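Hi R.,

Here's the chain you asked about this morning:
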Amino acid sequence: MSDKEKAKSNYGADAITVLEGLDPVRKRPGMYIGSTSATGLHHLIWEVVDNCIDEAMGGYATEISVTLLENGMVKVADDGRGIPVEKHKVTGLSALETVLTKLHAGGKFGGDGYKVSGGLHGVGVSVVNALSEYLKAEIHRDGKIWEQEYKIGKPLKNIKAVGTTKKTGTTITFKPDATIFTETEFNWGKILDRLRQQSYLTKGIFLNVIDERPGHSFKKYRFYFEGGVKSYIKSLHRQKNVKHETVFYVEKEVNSCKIEVALQYNDEYNETTLPFANNIYNIDGGTHLVGFKTALTRTLNSYARNKNLLKEKDENLTGDDVREGLTAIISVKIPEPQFEGQTKGKLGNAEIKTYVEQVFGDSFLTFLEENPKEAESIIGKCIISAQARLAARTARANILRKGALEGMTLPGKLADCSSNKAEECELYIVEGDSAGGSAKQGRDRKFQAILPLRGKILNVERARLDKMLVNIEIKNLVIALGTNIGDQLSMEKLRYHRVIIMTDADVDGSHIRTLLLTLFFRYFNQLITDGHIYIAQPPLYQIKKGSTSKYAYTEEEKLEIIKEFGGDIKDENIEEGEENKEGTEDDKKNEKEIDDKKKAKKLFIQRYKGLGEMNPEQLWETTMNPKTRIVKRVTLEDAAQADIIFDMLMGDDASKRKTFIQTHAKNVSNLDI
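And here is the predicted structure, written out as tokens:
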């Protein structure tokens, strides 16, 4: 009997594994929290906070506190009703233990628990319990304080009353399991940004964020925004020049669905539109975003025609025209949200499109009628955008026509790879012809393409698309990628699934890298969100002792290698720069024996000032060989925060840039957007 036949005959009931209780979560944590990296670690806090937010949205809680404690512990508390503690009819356990140990158990599946909640699958706090080596629940309810402790998702004792109280609320303290997560250090800035956002979206609540970790300076922030998403818009526009002072805002309830929209235009060319459903950011949009966009375009066109700001011969403004320079937030709170996927990236409720379209369209038209000067400013910006769009269409058509004629190659610039399978191909964007020459010689021609840049590309933060496409370096990149650009971006035509930025480790190299990241963020955003953009990490030093050499990518690695070679940074046997090989043949012959002994002891350290200093073999070995290289994938966790940083670093206001650099220079050695 063959192995295949044996396997088939042995496949019976005994081969089926049944995971009880919370075992599925520990077996496949990524299915529940996305990953076991830093993102998944912080997701534990979001899950517990979401429960508190649900209480606040229901009108039961007014204050939420998140405290970072010693040993990686986190405490999340609210003054809501408190999780019920009486025995559950179905499970026979207390309601608290049921919520903490059973998947799909909670107050979000019908009944009167919550009218509106962010939870979809009801796995929140039970998942946190499953992935924590320790969790303690403290409930203030019915005049008593109830407590129960858990270890890896299992109760240590039955729930018990430990005191009396006049308060109500829930406090969850937990320590993530270090055997599950690749890192257990919480990021203060990430937590602060997320909870500030939640505070904007749930106006009228107090949200405290406290850092009590030993070894960290004590910090406490208290957020309270009476203006809700209107305050959020003002925050996003702190660093921008606005086109009109008054922030448009509407809040209305339709058939138990609460609609909240705020917007304001700035003098830039980029759009920031953030859609939320039940306080969850919907990265892929959904029906609420579609309703908003439809109403925005229709309302502005209608107003412009009625006021004769658009002439009969003029084309209607397009969606892109009316969203240039727009910052908008659409927040809906609905009883039965229908999301696509566990990450809730897209809202699917069909009725919400109509509700948002109606509420926003009517209110925005009234806003324009009541604020004619501001309306004229908005329409004026949209008309200029339309004119630029027509110019960009012509420029883009010329690029694509040129690319088609040349078979999508750039003679003399792009050294393409031989493979035509995009998933195995990678494009190195290299600074300068010298480094480009080494990269072309050192690469694997089968799957690695090289595109050298001459000088710095245009800062696209300060230019519209029509001006960008005149820049030869940007034109070359658009053709090389094959995707088109901006609103016509087509990911199916992407020719390389890894696009690697490779620049020198100096100020100019950092500037070029930032210019390229700005270009990708503004006009090829999906390449970042889909994980196609990388940053190469060339070594800073080559350290040699005798015939042995090693590369150091950081100052710390340099010290470790020196120590490994038996040296000391203050050792007189360490020589900075390249090994001296000059001298006559007689000199070398006479001193050969002495030199050999010296070289066996001496360390030679070469500091690489640029990629061009490496020969092709060194560049391949250190920076381009997939088996040995280090590359960093560029990710985008918070689009709004990234928008603010790019605007600050690359915008027109030098004073804001100077203040940002002075504030963060001492604290940041490597900035990841």
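One quick note: The mean pLDDT is 83.

Cheers,
M.
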